[in-house]
Amino acid sequence: LHLAVAGAHLKEQHYGEAVLRYRRARECALVAQAQQHPAANDLLMQGWFGEAGALLAAKQPEHAAQAYAEAAQVAASIPNPLFVIEGRRMAGHSLAQAHQREQALQQHLQGVAAAREMAAPDRAMTTFPLLLQNLLQLEDPRRATQLATRADDYQKAVADAHVRAEHRAAKLGDAPARDALDSIDTELLEQCESAFAKLVKEREQLIAG
Questions:
Q1: How many CB atoms neighbour CB 47 within 10 A?
Q2: pLDDT tens digits, residue range 77-123?
Q3: 18 and 55 in contact (C-beta within 8 Å)?
Q4: Which residue, 21, 27, 121, 139, is the most exposed by fewest CB within 10 angstroms?
């Protein structure tokens, strides 16, 4: 109930009230924990994540980072590696907003360490790729921006290729020959593959730098 009310306060941008409710939720979680209730740690973790989100929205990134780090520690005790990674990622993100680069780096690296303990297929289902993106932004913002631009260029190239193919197909009339359509499809596929190969090459060069 406290979590639900906190969410309502957060939606209305009543950040102080939201934080108080998230803390009340954690008090309930501690009582449940003392009674060995199986959901206690999950509730405790949700309370920390909720408070962290409210503090970040209230533009208090340093305090938000502390709450995210607490959430990650609780997640580790469950254990829930998905939320360990997310807690460390958001702690690092918050510290980066507070211009505390070294502390942000340490939080990100703890997230990397947690991800290393997971199987690769499981890791892909977490926010680990976002953590790596945040880490790259922290280490080299210029190249991180260039990487994002390369992705935008690729999407534009593919969209333009589809528009050209549609225009060519429209010129064939209402009853186009199968061979002509196949030719358009083949050229479209080649253009998309070429755009992707160009993207990969440019991204690899940027990452290698």
A1: 27
A2: 999 999 999 999 999 999 999 999 999 999 999 999 999 999 999 99
A3: no
A4: 121
